[in-house]
Design goal:
The complex is a heterodimer of chains A (114) and B (111). With 114 residues, chain A is mainly beta. Chain A has no helices and eleven strands. Chain B has a five-stranded mixed β-sheet with strand order 1-9-8-3-4, with no helix packed on it. Chain B has a four-stranded antiparallel β-sheet with strand order 2-7-6-5, with no helix packed on it. The mean pLDDT of chain B is 94. The chains are: A mainly beta (114), B mainly beta (111).
Amino acid sequence: SAVISQKPSRDICQRGTSLTIQCQVDSQVTMMFWYRQQPGQSLTLIATANQGSEATYESGFVIDKFPISRPNLTFSTLTVSNMSPEDSSIYLCSVDKGQGGEQYFGPGTRLTVT
Amino acid sequence: DAKTTQPTSMDCAEGRAANLPCNHSTISGNEYVYWYRQIHSQGPQYIIHGLKNNETNEMASLIITEDRKSSTLILPHATLRDTAVYYCIVSLAANAGKSTFGDGTTLTVKP
């Protein structure tokens, strides 16, 4: 298994600003994943972050809006740039640490953009 | 990843078994069935996964049909704390981190 922490747990931000979310894992992992969960909806994968290479973004998500860093095997950040109210969501990071590919998720960052 | 179909919602009496079905008729031979749950305002929690055989752990049992086109997650003695959205996902193990989450089943355990 894996223990994952995220900072901040929640934030209220003004439109046009940016927020960087941190994700820390208690052990080294190859890939980390960032998801978004909009109010009342299911999870949507934003991107996959590998250490030492650029993140791979899913359709509908771009690096300019959601830049990701992965400086080492236990840490990643997701920045939500130039925020609008539509970016109000829970942002979650995860890792597939399990031997069978099972995922472990962080507690999420609840972002409200006003 | 194969698509899954789950009922939108289910109720269960506290102390009784909760049986959550999932259809995955297009599953391929190497794809696993994974179950997660998300309790309100928390990150999803891994429950169990399997390939062909039935699996059991301290949280739940997973029953996969012989043709692998459907499965059932069983919570043997549901408690109020099991109220959550339950997600059934089918994926290759190597791609499990890039899972497609559907709408899941909202399980409400009632006293």
